[in-house]
Design a protein that fits this description.
Elements: E1 2-9, E2 18-21, E3 26-30, H1 37-47, E4 77-85, E5 107-115, E6 120-124, E7 127-129, H2 131-139, E8 150-152, H3 158-161, H4 164-174, H5 178-222, H6 226-326, H7 332-356, H8 363-374, H9 387-481, H10 499-519, H11 525-589, E9 593-604, E10 607-609, E11 615-617, E12 622-633, H12 647-664, E13 669-673, H13 681-694, E14 699-703, H14 707-711, E15 715-721, E16 727-732, H15 734-741
Parallel strand pairs: 3-14, 3-15, 8-13, 13-14
Antiparallel strand pairs: 1-2, 1-4, 4-5, 5-6, 6-7, 9-12, 10-11, 15-16
Helix pairs in contact: 5-11, 6-7, 6-9, 6-10, 7-8, 8-9, 11-12
């Protein structure tokens, strides 16, 4: 299994799709500070399920999405996809039921997306999965959640600062034991659920036992009730048959009567509705005609008033012009100004009339008036109008008078139409009163029929109640004597019987029912059915407890085996790590010793209270927790405590330990983010030698500024900030890389 490709899109500074290929054992990523090269490391953390926003230098999901720039818009989401070669089919995954999930693919792809609202999606080969599934999948190939395979600048000595328990977890993760821890936790959850189920089943069986014993005694009593049930069955035959015949006959009788009354009601209702519809429709039609005529009349009157006002203005113009002819020449200019004002007013009034009125016969007349009046405008003549102009005004006057006459004729015609319609409406109202009297007679008949129908419905309800009582009686009979109660249907009877006969039968039935109910055994069929069901339930619960007990034993054994396996492999793994740790430690420091030691710590799981209320420790609950401590001894120095090491010494120690851990159970790949930053030239060469050794068993992705480290890489990727303020990737040569890194 090998890492093939990393695809980044919209993640942090990588605005556009960026693809890194890992075909070489060592791939170096270089670039100046701020170019976004460490975002490649964080993209790897992100896609492998990292939940700590601090480790990805963010506060929330939205901080991981490209923010936008002058030339690029803000991204809607951030997505990272990592591809693994799976031709050897090493990836494994099981579902919650413990069944293997089909991963028969040559390439495994894991995708993670985050949206601006913080929503995360995890996708495995195109199918959405849970974060838990991603962790379990990666654990199967020794990529754990502790991040031992991703070492960033400033975090290389994280293992040195961790406490003993945290160091143990990191070592377990590096040894590939995390998958067993997941299985233990899952088994413990199953064990807890199984124990709860066992308690519930045990409680249900205890609760079931008294009732089962009671039913056994009731079955014994049941045999004594046979004689009463036989007698009751004979009485039911006659009583139920007679009741059934009566109910059917009465139902048919009432149904026929109701059909007859409903038909009569419908006929009467149709007559009432027909009268209402005819008179109402005619009245509405006449009223609508009257409304339209009155609207037309009002429109004619309004137009006539407007034209009369125009006539008054024309007559005023004629009078004014006649006076002007008699005035002196020195006031000609003033008269012309007055004429201009009057004509302007007339024009405005005519325009207003044209706009407000839609009557086709009025508009041409008003337009002709306007054209005639334009000839009298002072703009057309500089002189005071003469006799010909006055004649034209008088001609306009005559036309307006004719128009008024036409409107008066139309007004008379509309008034006459309105009056005729009012008279017709009054006549129709008189006819309507006659129809109302006839309609009242039909309504009385309608009410009588409704009363008869209501009385009939009461009878039907009473019959329905009697029918329900009959059905309940059948159910009670079934409860007391079983299905034999239904055999009344085949019972032969000569007549329906009198009511008092039925009453006598009912009393006999009630007396026997009371005796049977006092016995509390019912029909026996229900009792036997319940006894059988409760017995089967008890047997099922007993089998369930047996199965749960076996499951508990199996889970406890599995947990014990897994813990033993972890313990054995942990101890063996520590031994192997110490061998490699010593080699790397001596290489980095030119001698000295470095090793891991397993520590133990005793703890109490819980404290119980004694019967006297005193707190007592339960000796069986004492647990021993194992941890890891790191011992070092530098050459030519007396320093043996981690806290006494310098920063550089701590860095070399942690690098040596992490490299040793990766050698024992090599992860598919290691990401080293500027872990060589503090090394001098000599140590850089040693660091480079270790990289080449590590690359034989794990792929290496190295973020570096170090020239020596770059020289060991098969492929160099340069990360720079483009003109669009987004990171872009370049495949560069070694000489170019050293310049870019600066």
């Amino acid at each position: 299994m090998r890492l093939k490709t990393l695809e980044i899109n919209g993640f942090k500074s990588f605005a556009q799709k960026t693809i890194l290929e890992f075909e070489n054992p060592i791939v170096a990523i270089v670039g100046p500070n701020g170019s976004g090269k460490s975002n490649v490391v964080e993209a790897v953390r992100f896609v492998l399920g990292e939940q700590s926003m601090k480790s990805m230098r963010g506060k929330g999901g939205s901080d991981l999405i490209f923010k936008g720039s002058k030339n690029l818009s803000k991204a809607a989401r951030a997505a990272v996809i990592i591809y693994f070669n799976n031709t050897d089919k090493v990836f494994k995954l099981t579902n919650d039921g413990g069944e293997d999930v089909n991963l028969n693919y040559d390439t495994i792809s894991i995708s993670r997306e985050v949206f601006s609202d913080g929503l995360n999606k995890y996708i495995l080969n195109g199918s959405e999965v849970r974060l838990k599934d991603i962790h379990n999948l990666l654990s199967s190939v020794n990529i754990g959640s502790s991040g031992h395979h991703i070492i960033s600048q400033g975090e290389s000595d994280r293992i040195l600062n961790a406490n003993a328990r945290e160091k143990r977890e990191m070592v377990e993760d590096a040894l590939g034991l995390k998958i067993y821890q997941y299985k233990i936790k899952e088994s413990e959850r199953k064990l807890e659920r199984t124990n709860e189920n066992m308690k519930e089943v045990s409680l249900m069986r205890r609760e079931n036992a008294p009732h089962l014993n009671f039913l056994k005694k009731q079955v014994e009593k049941f045999e004594k009730t046979k004689e009463m049930q036989t007698e009751l069955g004979a009485l039911y035959q006659e009583y139920l048959k007679k009741e059934d015949l009566y109910l059917k006959g009465e139902k048919d009788n009432l149904s026929a009567k109701r059909t007859k009354i409903e038909n009569e009601l419908k006929n009467v209702a149709d007559k009432i509705s027909g009268a209402e519809d005819t008179t109402s429709a005619q009245g509405e039609k006449k009223l609508e005609e009257l409304r339209k005529v009155e609207e037309n009349l009002n429109s004619i009157r309004s137009l006539k008033n407007e034209v009369e006002r125009k006539l008054g203005r024309i007559e005023g113009m004629i009078e004014m012009e006649e006076r002007r002819r008699e005035q002196k020449s020195e006031i000609v200019e003033i008269s012309q100004e007055e004429i201009k004002q009057v004509i302007g007013e007339i024009n405005n009034s005519i325009d207003e009339a044209i706009l407000k009125n839609d009557m086709a016969e009025v508009k041409p007349i008003l337009k002709r008036i306007k054209n005639v009046l334009k000839k009298f405008s002072p703009d057309n003549k500089a002189e005071v109008p003469g006799s010909s102009e006055i004649d034209k005004f008088k001609e306009s006057q005559e036309k307006i008078l004719r128009e008024i006459k036409e409107l008066e004729n139309k007004e008379k015609e509309a008034s006459k139409s309105a009056e005729n319609l009012r008279r017709e409406i009054n006549e129709q109202m008189e006819t309507l009163r006659d129809l109302e009297r006839e309609k009242f007679t039909w309504k009385v008949k309608h009410q009588e029929l409704k009363s008869a129908l209501e009385f009939l419905l009461i009878k039907e309800r009473n019959l329905k109640d009697r029918k329900e009582a009959f059905e309940n009686e059948i159910k009670e009979g079934e409860a007391l004597i079983g299905k034999e109660a239904l055999s009344f249907k085949n019972y032969q009877i000569e007549n329906n019987g009198e009511a008092h006969d039925q009453e006598e039968l009912r009393k006999k039935i009630e007396r026997i029912k009371i005796k049977l109910e006092d016995a509390g055994l019912g029909s026996g069929a229900e009792l036997m059915k319940e006894f059988r069901e409760v017995s089967e339930r008890d047997q099922f619960l007993a089998k369930e407890m047996e199965d749960l007990g076996k499951s508990i034993e199996s889970l406890e054994k599995l947990i014990a085996d897994l813990k033993e396996k972890i313990d054995v492999e942990f101890k063996e793994g520590v031994k192997k790590i110490n061998v490699e740790f010593q080699v790397f430690f001596a290489l980095m420091f030119g001698g000295g010793h470095g090793s891991l030691a397993i520590t133990t710590e005793t703890k109490r799981k819980r404290i119980d209270e004694s019967e006297e209320g005193e707190e007592t420790e339960d000796a069986e609950d004492v647990i021993i927790e194992k941890g890891i401590e790191i011992n070092v001894s530098l050459p030519h120095k007396k320093v043996k405590e981690l806290h006494a090491l310098s920063g550089g010494e701590r860095s070399l120690t942690s690098i040596a330990l992490l490299f040793a851990m990766s050698q024992v159970n090599p992860p598919p790949f290691l990401v080293l983010d500027e872990t060589d930053a503090a090394l001098d030239e000599a140590n850089s060469r040693k660091y480079g030698d270790m990289l080449e050794k590590l690359s034989k068993r794990s792929q290496l992705i190295v973020v570096t500024h170090n020239r020596e480290t770059m020289s060991r890489a098969g492929v160099l990727y340069g990360v720079t900030i483009g003109s669009n303020e987004a990171s872009k990737l370049l495949s560069v040569k070694f000489e170019e890389a050293t310049q870019i890194a600066k």
